[in-house]
Design goal:
Blueprint lengths: L1 H38 L1
């Protein structure tokens, strides 16, 4: 049972990191868009 819980936690961390990277990419795009709008 412990082994299954451990793999679930590892899987959860991988999913979390994946979404974190995805979110960071969108934040960068969002801020780049704001900066371009200000620059114009």
């Amino acid at each position: 049972m412990k082994a299954i819980e451990k793999t679930n936690i590892q899987h959860g961390m991988l999913v979390f990191l994946h979404w974190l990277e995805f979110g960071v990419c969108w934040i960068i795009v969002y801020f780049a868009g704001i900066l371009l709008a200000i620059a114009e």
